[in-house]
Amino acid sequence: MIGMLIGSFIWGYVADSRGRRFTLIICMLMDGLFNILSSVSQMYSIFIFCRLLSGFGISGSTTLFSYLVEFLNIKYREKFLSWMEMFWTSGIILVPCKNLLDFINNCVAWLIIPQTFRIENEYILFKSWNLFVIMCSLPSITLALLLMKMPESPKFLLSRGKHKETINCLKFVHRWNSNSDDKFPVTSIIMPSSNDKSNNSFFEGLYKSTIDLFTSKFKIIAIVTCIIHFCATTSYYMLILWFPELMNRFRWYETYSNFQNKTTMCEIVSMYKAEPEVNNLKCDDHIDQSVYMNIMIIGIACIPTSLVVPLFINKLGLRFFTVLSFFGSSISAAWLYFITSSMENMVLSSIFEAFSSIGISLTYCITVELFPTEYRGMAASIGTMFGKIGALLGNILIGIFIDAHCIVPIFVSSSFLISEYKYDIVFNSLT
Fold first, then answer.
1. For the segment 385-428, what is each residue's pLDDT rounded down to a tens digit?
2. Which InterPro entries does this chain map to (predicted)?
């Protein structure tokens, strides 16, 4: 998470100065290669270092929103950007995870992690978890290799005054769509004033890009964007990391307690006591199979929202669905206090995941739509950085209050989401 926090800020400047494609290739290679290194690392310090650099790399993946939007006609932007949520969802399902990509991730985890093979000698210990991490690194490396065959964003090239490269990029898109070079309609392009910042050193350019954004006419929108990202991810990570433990405690209560009367969630959480610790150095790496099923169900619950939003985005608008998603997630977060069974917990967890994940994705979509090319990468990355700060805060809060005061994370999460819902309304009025 710390690597992602640092990387979120830096990759935005790299995307705006060196290009979207360049940034995506480097960050995907970093994520994939350091994931592989972490999977075979036998020293904790090296493992942590590799995870830090992997997080640093993957934080640049938000540049994909800028890369995609700069190829699209305004008419189709909202629809294509919102379709990206489906792939997030698939990932949750495939890993025990979060969207269509979530579905694939859950299936992969279920297939690999329960395996009991073990490769061990005096130099290395390799088990199913190591293989799973390697499998998860392959999409990043594959994407980097595919991007090497793709052109740079035409709007970025245009903003840098590269006339010939822009024409070649448009020819590539025309050839891809029509399977022919015939009837290419563009013969020349009116070049805007060049926005070349290559004379600056890296850190001077990073500082100047940040100052330029927050002193431009887009400064209010940039501030509101950061607040929305912070509120969304604080609430999301605070609860989504709690749900598996909450399921475990409900399962414990329903298995070992005589619950004839309804008991609230906070009462069950406070009753749960971990079994006395045993001084046993043997590692118990068994994972209950229900964990995979529960996460898969949560991932599948995201599919309806991932389908509905792209289908109706042109009629109802991107901002309508953003406000609706955070309103729905705030209600589901607040309702957690009243649940009394594992089934209710599963239903509410699924609703919260469905609304929150689409809301976060739509926030990225709105961000890259609102800012011009020269600010787009930095604005998206700074918003992401505030989101990672929120994620760290959410992790800390849930760790502090989960046992003693479970009402606190519920109250904080729902309050942040309600605040975000209001900020979304303000956001819409500004744009």
1. 888 888 888 888 887 877 777 788 888 888 877 776 666 665 55
2. MFS_dom, MFS_sugar_transport-like, MFS_trans_sf
Domain extent, residue 383, equals 1-150+209-269+289-429
Q: How far apart are alpha carbons 408 and 426 in whole angstroms?
A: 27
* 95 in any annotated domain: yes
Is 186 domain-assigned? no
Residues 296 and 312 in one domain: yes
Q: What is the pLDDT of residues 225-273, one digit of tens each?
A: 888 888 888 888 888 877 777 777 777 777 776 655 566 777 777 776 5
Q: Look up the pTM and report it.
A: 0.74
Residue 21 lies in a domain: yes
- Report yes or no on 394 lying in a domain: yes
**144, 174: one domain:** no
CA atoms within 13 A on the CB side of 256: 12
CATH of the domain at 34: 1.20.1250.20
